[in-house]
Amino acid sequence: MESGQDKLQELIVRHCAILRANADLLAGCVARMSDPDNASGQPARDALHIAHQVAGAGGSIGFHEISAIASDIERALQPIVAINGMPSAAQKARIDALVHRLQRVAAELKPQMSTLYRLDVAAIAGERHRA
Amino acid sequence: MDLHRITYVEDEPDIREIARIALADIGGFEVDLCESGQEALRRSTDFHPDMFLLDVMMPGMDGMQTYRTLRAMPEFCNTPAAFMTAKVQDHEIRHYRQLGITGVIVKPFDPVTLATAVRRLWEHAGY
pLDDT tens for residues A60-96? Predict the structure, then answer.
Protein backbone atom coordinates (compact mmCIF):
# COMPACT_ATOMS: atom_id res chain seq x y z
CA MET A 1 0.00 0.00 0.00
CA GLU A 2 1.23 3.48 -0.89
CA SER A 3 2.40 5.49 2.13
CA GLY A 4 1.40 9.06 2.88
CA GLN A 5 4.95 10.17 2.07
CA ASP A 6 4.83 8.42 -1.34
CA LYS A 7 1.52 10.11 -2.16
CA LEU A 8 2.92 13.47 -1.08
CA GLN A 9 6.05 13.07 -3.21
CA GLU A 10 3.95 12.05 -6.24
CA LEU A 11 1.85 15.16 -5.75
CA ILE A 12 4.95 17.37 -5.47
CA VAL A 13 6.50 15.91 -8.66
CA ARG A 14 3.24 16.41 -10.56
CA HIS A 15 2.76 19.90 -9.20
CA CYS A 16 6.28 20.91 -10.26
CA ALA A 17 5.32 20.28 -13.90
CA ILE A 18 2.01 22.13 -13.40
CA LEU A 19 3.81 25.17 -11.99
CA ARG A 20 6.12 25.31 -15.02
CA ALA A 21 3.15 25.02 -17.39
CA ASN A 22 1.18 27.65 -15.48
CA ALA A 23 4.11 30.08 -15.52
CA ASP A 24 4.16 29.79 -19.33
CA LEU A 25 0.35 30.13 -19.56
CA LEU A 26 0.50 33.21 -17.37
CA ALA A 27 3.22 34.72 -19.60
CA GLY A 28 0.97 34.14 -22.62
CA CYS A 29 -1.98 35.92 -20.97
CA VAL A 30 0.21 38.85 -19.90
CA ALA A 31 1.63 39.15 -23.43
CA ARG A 32 -1.94 39.50 -24.76
CA MET A 33 -2.97 42.12 -22.18
CA SER A 34 -1.79 45.10 -24.24
CA ASP A 35 -3.18 43.77 -27.52
CA PRO A 36 -5.93 46.20 -28.72
CA ASP A 37 -7.96 43.16 -29.83
CA ASN A 38 -8.20 42.17 -26.16
CA ALA A 39 -9.70 45.39 -24.84
CA SER A 40 -12.37 43.32 -23.02
CA GLY A 41 -9.81 42.68 -20.30
CA GLN A 42 -10.14 38.89 -20.58
CA PRO A 43 -6.37 38.19 -20.72
CA ALA A 44 -5.86 40.16 -17.48
CA ARG A 45 -8.69 38.21 -15.79
CA ASP A 46 -7.20 34.91 -17.02
CA ALA A 47 -3.75 35.98 -15.80
CA LEU A 48 -5.17 36.89 -12.38
CA HIS A 49 -6.90 33.51 -12.13
CA ILE A 50 -3.68 31.63 -12.95
CA ALA A 51 -1.58 33.78 -10.58
CA HIS A 52 -4.11 33.10 -7.81
CA GLN A 53 -3.91 29.33 -8.45
CA VAL A 54 -0.11 29.35 -8.50
CA ALA A 55 0.09 31.38 -5.28
CA GLY A 56 -2.38 29.17 -3.38
CA ALA A 57 -1.40 25.73 -4.62
CA GLY A 58 2.35 26.39 -4.95
CA GLY A 59 2.58 27.70 -1.40
CA SER A 60 0.49 24.91 0.11
CA ILE A 61 2.69 22.32 -1.65
CA GLY A 62 5.89 23.83 -0.27
CA PHE A 63 7.11 26.02 -3.13
CA HIS A 64 7.17 29.28 -1.22
CA GLU A 65 9.31 31.41 -3.56
CA ILE A 66 7.01 30.66 -6.51
CA SER A 67 3.99 31.40 -4.33
CA ALA A 68 5.41 34.76 -3.22
CA ILE A 69 6.16 35.86 -6.79
CA ALA A 70 2.68 34.77 -7.93
CA SER A 71 1.14 36.78 -5.06
CA ASP A 72 3.07 39.86 -6.23
CA ILE A 73 1.71 39.27 -9.75
CA GLU A 74 -1.82 38.97 -8.34
CA ARG A 75 -1.47 42.29 -6.52
CA ALA A 76 -0.10 43.96 -9.65
CA LEU A 77 -2.98 42.63 -11.78
CA GLN A 78 -5.84 43.44 -9.38
CA PRO A 79 -6.11 47.19 -10.17
CA ILE A 80 -6.15 46.45 -13.90
CA VAL A 81 -8.86 43.80 -13.58
CA ALA A 82 -10.86 46.04 -11.20
CA ILE A 83 -11.32 48.68 -13.89
CA ASN A 84 -11.48 46.12 -16.70
CA GLY A 85 -8.82 48.16 -18.44
CA MET A 86 -5.51 48.02 -20.23
CA PRO A 87 -2.28 48.23 -18.22
CA SER A 88 -0.21 51.40 -18.31
CA ALA A 89 3.34 51.07 -19.62
CA ALA A 90 4.67 51.12 -16.06
CA GLN A 91 2.18 48.47 -14.88
CA LYS A 92 3.00 46.29 -17.89
CA ALA A 93 6.76 46.59 -17.30
CA ARG A 94 6.38 45.60 -13.63
CA ILE A 95 4.15 42.63 -14.46
CA ASP A 96 6.48 41.50 -17.26
CA ALA A 97 9.45 41.59 -14.90
CA LEU A 98 7.58 39.52 -12.28
CA VAL A 99 6.38 36.99 -14.86
CA HIS A 100 9.91 36.57 -16.24
CA ARG A 101 11.14 35.97 -12.72
CA LEU A 102 8.36 33.42 -12.16
CA GLN A 103 9.27 31.58 -15.36
CA ARG A 104 12.97 31.57 -14.45
CA VAL A 105 12.29 30.15 -10.97
CA ALA A 106 9.77 27.64 -12.36
CA ALA A 107 12.24 26.44 -15.01
CA GLU A 108 14.78 25.58 -12.30
CA LEU A 109 12.25 24.00 -9.97
CA LYS A 110 12.91 20.49 -8.67
CA PRO A 111 10.57 18.42 -6.47
CA GLN A 112 13.24 18.25 -3.77
CA MET A 113 13.01 22.05 -3.43
CA SER A 114 9.55 21.73 -1.89
CA THR A 115 9.72 22.17 1.89
CA LEU A 116 7.35 19.18 2.12
CA TYR A 117 9.40 16.73 0.03
CA ARG A 118 11.05 15.01 3.02
CA LEU A 119 8.01 15.36 5.28
CA ASP A 120 7.39 12.16 7.23
CA VAL A 121 3.59 12.11 7.12
CA ALA A 122 3.26 8.97 9.28
CA ALA A 123 5.55 10.36 11.99
CA ILE A 124 3.68 13.68 12.14
CA ALA A 125 0.35 11.87 12.24
CA GLY A 126 1.67 9.70 15.09
CA GLU A 127 2.89 12.72 17.06
CA ARG A 128 -0.43 14.45 16.58
CA HIS A 129 -2.30 11.35 17.71
CA ARG A 130 -0.20 11.06 20.88
CA ALA A 131 -0.76 14.77 21.65
CA MET B 1 -19.58 16.66 20.30
CA ASP B 2 -16.22 16.08 18.58
CA LEU B 3 -15.02 16.99 15.12
CA HIS B 4 -14.76 13.94 12.86
CA ARG B 5 -16.16 14.69 9.42
CA ILE B 6 -15.12 17.61 7.25
CA THR B 7 -16.33 18.65 3.81
CA TYR B 8 -13.68 20.67 1.96
CA VAL B 9 -14.82 22.51 -1.20
CA GLU B 10 -11.97 23.56 -3.49
CA ASP B 11 -11.76 23.78 -7.29
CA GLU B 12 -7.97 23.30 -7.55
CA PRO B 13 -7.19 19.52 -7.69
CA ASP B 14 -3.69 19.70 -6.17
CA ILE B 15 -4.93 21.78 -3.23
CA ARG B 16 -7.65 19.16 -2.66
CA GLU B 17 -4.96 16.47 -2.63
CA ILE B 18 -2.65 18.26 -0.19
CA ALA B 19 -5.68 19.07 1.99
CA ARG B 20 -6.60 15.37 2.01
CA ILE B 21 -3.08 14.47 3.20
CA ALA B 22 -3.21 17.27 5.80
CA LEU B 23 -6.69 16.58 7.16
CA ALA B 24 -7.06 12.81 6.71
CA ASP B 25 -3.53 11.32 6.81
CA ILE B 26 -2.10 13.78 9.35
CA GLY B 27 -5.25 15.03 11.09
CA GLY B 28 -7.15 11.74 11.21
CA PHE B 29 -10.41 13.33 10.07
CA GLU B 30 -12.87 11.74 7.68
CA VAL B 31 -12.83 14.10 4.71
CA ASP B 32 -15.14 14.58 1.74
CA LEU B 33 -13.42 16.63 -0.97
CA CYS B 34 -15.71 18.44 -3.40
CA GLU B 35 -14.59 20.32 -6.50
CA SER B 36 -17.50 22.79 -6.52
CA GLY B 37 -20.24 24.24 -4.37
CA GLN B 38 -22.82 22.31 -6.38
CA GLU B 39 -21.03 19.03 -5.65
CA ALA B 40 -20.91 19.87 -1.94
CA LEU B 41 -24.65 20.58 -1.90
CA ARG B 42 -25.34 17.23 -3.58
CA ARG B 43 -23.07 15.14 -1.38
CA SER B 44 -23.31 16.72 2.04
CA THR B 45 -26.80 15.44 2.79
CA ASP B 46 -25.32 11.91 2.66
CA PHE B 47 -21.92 12.69 4.20
CA HIS B 48 -23.29 14.81 7.07
CA PRO B 49 -20.13 16.83 7.82
CA ASP B 50 -19.48 18.29 11.25
CA MET B 51 -17.80 21.26 9.56
CA PHE B 52 -17.38 22.85 6.12
CA LEU B 53 -14.19 24.37 4.72
CA LEU B 54 -14.94 26.53 1.68
CA ASP B 55 -12.57 28.03 -0.84
CA VAL B 56 -13.76 31.59 -1.49
CA MET B 57 -12.73 32.09 -5.12
CA MET B 58 -14.26 29.32 -7.22
CA PRO B 59 -15.69 29.47 -10.73
CA GLY B 60 -19.47 29.19 -10.89
CA MET B 61 -20.78 28.99 -7.35
CA ASP B 62 -18.20 30.73 -5.13
CA GLY B 63 -17.57 30.13 -1.44
CA MET B 64 -20.02 32.78 -0.25
CA GLN B 65 -22.85 31.51 -2.48
CA THR B 66 -22.16 27.96 -1.31
CA TYR B 67 -22.19 29.09 2.32
CA ARG B 68 -25.49 30.97 1.95
CA THR B 69 -27.12 28.00 0.21
CA LEU B 70 -25.92 25.58 2.90
CA ARG B 71 -27.15 27.90 5.65
CA ALA B 72 -30.61 27.86 4.07
CA MET B 73 -30.75 24.06 4.36
CA PRO B 74 -32.27 22.99 7.71
CA GLU B 75 -29.70 20.22 8.27
CA PHE B 76 -26.76 22.64 7.90
CA CYS B 77 -28.15 25.87 9.35
CA ASN B 78 -25.88 25.50 12.41
CA THR B 79 -22.94 23.55 10.96
CA PRO B 80 -19.66 25.50 11.43
CA ALA B 81 -18.16 26.76 8.19
CA ALA B 82 -14.77 28.38 7.60
CA PHE B 83 -13.42 30.14 4.53
CA MET B 84 -10.09 29.20 2.98
CA THR B 85 -8.75 32.29 1.29
CA ALA B 86 -5.70 34.38 0.49
CA LYS B 87 -4.70 37.06 2.99
CA VAL B 88 -7.69 39.04 4.15
CA GLN B 89 -7.92 42.23 6.16
CA ASP B 90 -9.39 42.37 9.66
CA HIS B 91 -12.54 44.20 8.53
CA GLU B 92 -13.23 41.41 6.00
CA ILE B 93 -12.88 38.78 8.73
CA ARG B 94 -15.27 40.79 10.94
CA HIS B 95 -17.73 40.93 8.04
CA TYR B 96 -17.49 37.16 7.53
CA ARG B 97 -18.06 36.58 11.25
CA GLN B 98 -21.13 38.81 11.19
CA LEU B 99 -22.48 36.51 8.49
CA GLY B 100 -21.93 33.53 10.76
CA ILE B 101 -18.65 32.25 9.31
CA THR B 102 -16.68 30.43 12.03
CA GLY B 103 -13.32 31.78 10.85
CA VAL B 104 -10.79 32.09 8.07
CA ILE B 105 -7.81 29.90 7.24
CA VAL B 106 -5.26 31.73 5.14
CA LYS B 107 -4.06 30.21 1.87
CA PRO B 108 -1.48 29.04 1.17
CA PHE B 109 -1.84 26.90 4.28
CA ASP B 110 0.73 24.77 6.09
CA PRO B 111 -0.30 21.11 5.66
CA VAL B 112 1.50 20.16 8.89
CA THR B 113 -0.63 22.51 11.01
CA LEU B 114 -3.87 22.66 9.00
CA ALA B 115 -5.69 20.03 11.08
CA THR B 116 -4.77 21.85 14.31
CA ALA B 117 -5.93 25.18 12.84
CA VAL B 118 -9.26 23.63 11.83
CA ARG B 119 -9.74 22.08 15.27
CA ARG B 120 -9.03 25.46 16.90
CA LEU B 121 -11.74 27.08 14.78
CA TRP B 122 -14.12 24.29 15.72
CA GLU B 123 -13.39 24.83 19.43
CA HIS B 124 -13.68 28.61 18.95
CA ALA B 125 -17.16 28.00 17.56
CA GLY B 126 -18.05 26.53 20.97
CA TYR B 127 -18.15 22.82 20.12
Answer: 999 999 999 999 999 999 999 998 778 899 999 999 9
Q: For residues A107 and A115, what is the distance between their CA atoms, to the nearest angstrom? A: 18
Write the CATH number for B12: 3.40.50.2300
**How many separate domains does chain B show?**
1
| Residue segments in chain B with a per-residue pLDDT below the cut of 50 | none
| H-run or E-run covering B91 | helix B90-98
Largest CA distance in chain A: 61
Q: Which CATH superfamily does the domain covering A4-130 fall into? A: HPT domain (1.20.120.160)
Among A8, A53, A129, beta carbon nearest to B21: A8
Sheet containing strand B81-85, strands side by side: B30-34, B5-9, B51-55, B81-85, B103-106
- Answer whether B24 touches A (CB < 8 Å): no
pLDDT at A84 (0 to 100): 79
Residue of A nearest to B28 (CA): A125
Query: CB B15 to CB A56 under 8 A?
Result: yes
Domain boundaries, chain A: 4-130
Per-residue pLDDT at A1? 61
Q: What percent of chain A has a predicted confidence (pLDDT) above 90?
A: 75
Rounded to the nearest angstrom, the minimum Cα separation between A62 and chain B is 8
